[in-house]
Amino acid sequence: MKYLIKYFIDFAVLVFLYAFVFFGKWRAQGRDRLLVNTLMYAYLSLVLYFTMMPVIASIPFMLDHPYKPMNMVPFIDVSLGRGDFFRQVLLNIIMTMPFGFLFPLTRDKRAKFGVTVFFCFLMSLGIELLQPFFDRSSDITDLITNVIGGALGYCLCVVFKPVTFWILARLKAR
Length: 174
Hints:
This protein is an all-alpha fold. It has one domain. Helix content is 72%, strand content 0%. It contains seven helices and no strands. Helix 4 crosses helix 6. The protein is flat and about 55 Å long.
């Protein structure tokens, strides 16, 4: 129960930010913008949940343990036979595919492939650099596979572009 309260605090802050900072601004831009930005916000909140939460309750203890630097040897888990490597790679790719799909839709001028992959890289790098402060491991393989996932998500966005734009145009017309 005590552990759940730590998560509740983080989610309460995220809901507060959405309700009082972002919602009104996005709603004023139209239903299509509200939908896309809300989906991106929910997605980023879930990424935060799986990669770093609880955050707020951990802040006082961030420096109570040694900072473990990022493992800089790509795909070392395969050669050492550690853990369920293929599952982790697949989950990292799947985790960032929504970013690659949604990011171009959140931009007024649709983001190109390079811009989307760059911002996916920055998001992933930020997570990997911050994870050791929350007593989690950090790995270059995660960074690589996250960027691959973002690139694949962008490709899916391009494939489903006609359907996506049809849906967003219908929302805008209402």
